[in-house]
Amino acid sequence: MKRRTPVATALLTLFAAPAVWAQQVPATPAPPAAAASATGELARVVVEGESAKEFAGTSSTKLGADLRDVPQSVTVLNKSLLESQGATSLADALRNVPGITLGGAEGGQIGNNINLNGFTARTDIYLDGFRDRGQYYRDTFALDAVEVMMGPSSMLFGRGSTGGAINQVSKRPTLKGSTELGASVTTNGMVRATLDHDQAIGSDAAVRVAVMGQSGRPTTRDEMKNRDFGIAPSITVGIGSPTQITLSALLQHNHDMPDYGFSPLNGRPVQVDRNAFYGFTDDHTTQDVGALNALVEHKISATSSLRNQTQYSNVRVNAVETASQGLGTVGAGGFTPLSPAGISALPLDQLWTRLQSHDRVIKDTSIFNQTDLTASATTGGVTHRLLFGAEVGHDSYSNQAYYRNGSCNGVALNPATGTSGYAACAPLLDPTYTASPDTAPSKAGNLSTSGATTLGAYVNDTLEFNDQFKFVGGLRYDRFSATVNNTITSATAPARIEQTVHFTSVRLGPLWQPTDSQSYYLSYSTSFNPSLEQLTNTTGGTAPLPPEKNTAYEVGGKWEPYKGLLALNASAFQITQDNARNQDVSGNYTATGTVRVRGARLGASGQLAHGWKVFAGYSYLDASIVHAIAVGTEGMVPGNTPKNTATLWSTYEVAPHWQLGGGAVAMSSRFLNNTDTVKVPGYVRLDATLGYHQHDYDIRLNLFNLANKYYYDALIQSDGGRAVPGTGRSAMISGTYRF
Predict the structure, then answer these.
(1) Nearest Cα to 529, choosing from 508, 507, 544, 509?
(2) Could you confirm whether the keyword Nucleus appears in this record (predicted)?
(3) Rounded to whole angstroms, how far apart are CA atoms 45 and 24?
(4) Among 143, 140, 146, residue whose Cα is nearest residue 121
């Protein structure tokens, strides 16, 4: 292959967005693969003498094979990108996507809590196309890719997806056969090992198993320690035949230390040592995950196919967690909470914080079935690519709350009949690291149980009028019925609450493609969020609120110059959420709010020259709570929504077998709450990598947070807003052996 001159670098000043630059290489040698488009096109393998248009789409049959035909921004992060960055968790992977911010263990939620385009995506995480609503921390050891679809997508996925949806794509068996062993160790003391074994067991069948184990400190933060392991076996029969069946599973166990970060002070997170830990040494979050998947794909004819998939998941969480909640002073009368004005008048060495327990045992179970029929037909000179689908499923959920009521300086922190769970207190500047005191025994609180049934039917048509003009149109009808029960009742927690929602979602988008390397689109899409969507009564009261309704408009373009070696994209959009839930002065919730996000995304990814790969991304979000009755929120910026985010990652083959690279993640300031009273400063984090590659093995050094920047990674809006600091400077050395 001829060397490419880096003239395309000038385009990077205009277009930037994260995407994946390379698919896994096929069994036969091929030149370096181009980057995936930041709008979602997976990397192409460019073979000398063949068209650069030969490439794969996402895993979703709902989106179609050619993502140029998708009037929506889609980003695909694949294995090669994540390996070069040393990313091992879903949270690490999603830092590549501007417009995504991370949340901590918000309220009753544990695991990956994500904001996408200014809206929560807590229940918009998917595993192989199925809603992955279990509360656990997700690893990448069993994944081939992560797909991020921007904007409301209820036509594709049903309820939720206000800001978009995130789909994890599992590794699947192939006939190529390979074994890959990996090991890594960090300066924090995290040791990790992985195995990926893919083996043919016949002319049309194969098995694959991915295994992961790790133990140690995930960050520089004090007391952080994880012990995790997982296995993901799968088998496929009928490869290359009209009927193919795949059975797979994900089994994972996590035993991690929770991190609730710092309380706010004077309008920002309290300024203490970033490694300070406010909790007990026996805190833990233990998660057991089991997911079983059965997929049957049948090719009916050259133009039609049928796909049926069933997934069962069971996630159990045992959480003993403690968080800093409220600042004050300690004296003979115990802990005295102070108002913000009183706190600001005192030096930090005179302040203490209450330690509040957040203990619960959570059980999440889901079983869903999806059937998709795809077909192509031509009528009246118009080609139709049709999708007909149906989904049925049931979710069940239980949350047994516990609390630990203790004392501070010998004085009870809670009323005799209280359940607040204040377990102890700690000096703000010098917290002591001890086990939970015997004076704060665990007691059972409310048991919340719930269930929901989902029925959905959808149809989508991509109409091709000629080589240049296409139109995408889709409808989906959903019926969502949920019930929540509580054993300890109150005005905001009734004994039983029920909700049934009927909603029709729309997806429309014309496309103009004047050449094979250009695609321009407009799109309109809708989605809905029932108030019992998370199977909890998040708004209190005895009657559920009507669903939030979301509408999005997007205009954009996708370009692929240099025979697909470079992918560019740009888009502008507006997402409006009506019936947004907010509290009035009496503490009751109403569905009277409006939240609007206007923004833009720019992206470039690909190969600028032989051996030089780069992707970059930028997102601008102008978010506003347009209307609200909650005091102090109207006109404010929604929490955890920065106006500007950007990412850059680049690697270059400086010599045969040697690769040097690095990049940055940048984020402007954001607020911890919807009243905009606590602000977290912006930051730029720098990372770097050095890799040595041979046919049978790789060795890589990753350096994280080179400048040792003190920044905040995840935000938690509850209790006035807490912020979790990111890791300090650290390094990881890893090796991979293939045979």
Answers:
(1) 544
(2) no
(3) 9
(4) 146
On whether the pTM is more than 0.85, the answer is yes
pLDDT of residue 716: 85
Enter the tokens of residue 412: 């009870």
Q: Copy the structure tokens of residue 475.
A: 């409808």
Neighbours of 432 (CB within 10 A): 9
pLDDT average, residue stretch 110-131:
88
Compute the distance between CA of residue 63 and CA of residue 73 in angstroms, rounded to an integer: 11
Q: Which of 673, 675, 667 is nearest to 620 (CA)?
A: 667
The per-residue pLDDT for range 248-260, each reduced to its tens digit, is 999 999 999 999 9
- Mean residue pLDDT of the chain comes to 88
Strand partners, 294: 247, 310
pLDDT tens digits, one per residue of 428-462? 999 999 999 999 999 999 999 999 999 999 999 99
Following DSSP, what letter does each residue of 50-74 receive, concatenated? S-TT-B---S-TTT-S-GGG-SS-E
pLDDT (tens digit per residue) in 307-342: 999 999 999 999 999 999 989 999 999 999 988 767
Residues 6+ apart with CB under 8 A from 534: 109, 122, 123, 133
Token pair recorded at residue 406:
């203790």
Query: For a pLDDT cut of 70, what percent of the chain falls above it?
Result: 89
Residues with Cβ within 8 Å of 321's Cβ and at least 6 positions away in sequence, in order, are 105, 258, 260, 279, 283, 285, 357, 358, 359
pLDDT at 16: 33
- Full 3-state SS string of 338-393: CCHHHHHCCCHHHCEEEEEECEEEEEEEEEEEEEEEEEEEEECCEEEEEEEEEEEE
Q: 505 with 486: CB under 8 angstroms?
A: no
Which of 504, 370, 519 has its CA nearest to residue 62?
A: 370
Q: Distances from the Cα of 131 to the Cαs of 9, 101, 127, 165, 708, in angstroms?
A: 39, 20, 6, 10, 37
- The three-class DSSP label of residue 446 is strand
The structure tokens 């999005």 sit at 552
pLDDT of residue 109: 58
Residues near 173 by beta carbon (within 8 Å), at least 6 away in sequence: 198, 199, 205, 206, 207, 208, 234, 235, 236, 239, 246
